[in-house]
């Protein structure tokens, strides 16, 4: 029986080979080995208009790679003609309701970016919580420690009206009254209606001290210099005041909340 099974199996294989002998499946296609046929079958076909000699057509010169256009430059990056705003700055300097007053938004696009509030690397020997004012660069630093500080742009006093040294912030006030000093009244008689004898100027959006004021003392005496807000946002980064340190109202509110009672201050 086993012998017969083997005979029948071999006979079936012979019949299958015979039936496939008419196909090309078992015959290799050696034509692909011919270089001439390979070139003929794979060469690209180009459009040749009638009457045009391709040998006399000049090639198109290489075009330069397009560069980024500077149609609209922002302080962050370049775009193709579309203005871009920083949502963080829009949130920090947007319209703000504070107490009974609504502070208008600051047009941050018109403020030099270095004078906007930002955390920066700052190496100093001063203790965390100290306020350091760099009068040359028009920066105020609130020292945070670990080599960091919150930096604000400030407006400062004109030559001859500036104060420098070490002191403490003896007193802080929200929406303060403004009372010009006797010296200021003598220099600017137009502010006499707001002198001490008349009770000063009421708090408000047009008050020169803005939304907050921090009063600088030295050796227990009032130096008459303050860190304060201002409605004149364009004065930040400039030397235009009578010696005090001006800040954007939104920034002075932020600093006010960070500064503790009797915080040290260095003006250099």
Automatic annotation (TrEMBL):
It comes from the Bacteria. One of its GO terms (molecular function) is acyltransferase activity. Residues 1-21 form the signal peptide. Keywords: Acyltransferase, Cell shape, Cell wall biogenesis/degradation, Glycosyltransferase, Hydrolase, Peptidoglycan synthesis, Signal, Transferase. SUPFAM superfamilies: L,D-transpeptidase catalytic domain-like. It holds the Pfam family YkuD. It is an enzyme of class 2 (transferase). Residues 129-268 form the L,D-TPase catalytic domain. Pathway: Cell wall biogenesis; peptidoglycan biosynthesis. The keyword Glycosyltransferase applies. The active site is at 228 (proton donor/acceptor), 244 (nucleophile). Its EC number is 2.3.2.-. Belongs to the YkuD family. This is L,D-transpeptidase.
């Amino acid at each position: 029986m086993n012998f017969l099974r083997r005979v029948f199996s071999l006979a079936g294989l012979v019949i299958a080979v015979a039936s496939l002998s008419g196909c090309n499946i078992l015959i290799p296609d050696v034509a692909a080995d011919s270089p001439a046929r390979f070139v003929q079958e794979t060469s690209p076909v180009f459009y040749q208009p009638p009457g045009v000699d391709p040998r006399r057509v000049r090639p198109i010169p290489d075009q330069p790679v397009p560069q980024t256009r500077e149609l609209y430059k922002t302080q962050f990056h370049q775009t193709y003609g579309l203005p871009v705003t920083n949502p963080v700055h829009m949130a920090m300097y947007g319209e703000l309701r504070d107490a009974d007053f609504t502070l208008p938004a600051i047009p941050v696009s018109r403020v030099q970016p270095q004078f906007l509030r930002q955390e920066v690397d700052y190496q100093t020997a001063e203790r965390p919580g100290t306020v350091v004012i760099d009068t040359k660069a028009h920066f105020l630093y609130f020292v945070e420690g670990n080599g960091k500080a919150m930096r604000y742009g400030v407006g400062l006093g004109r030559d001859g009206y500036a104060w420098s040294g070490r002191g403490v912030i003896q007193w802080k006030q929200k929406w303060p009254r403004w009372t010009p000093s006797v010296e200021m009244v003598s220099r600017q008689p137009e502010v006499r209606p707001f002198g001490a004898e008349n009770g000063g100027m009421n708090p408000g959006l047009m008050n020169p001290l803005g939304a907050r004021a921090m009063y600088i003392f030295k050796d227990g005496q009032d130096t008459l210099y303050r860190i304060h807000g201002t409605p004149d946002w364009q004065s930040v980064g400039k030397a235009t005041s009578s010696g005090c340190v001006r800040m954007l109202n939104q920034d002075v509110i932020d600093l006010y909340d960070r500064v503790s009672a009797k915080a040290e201050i260095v003006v250099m």
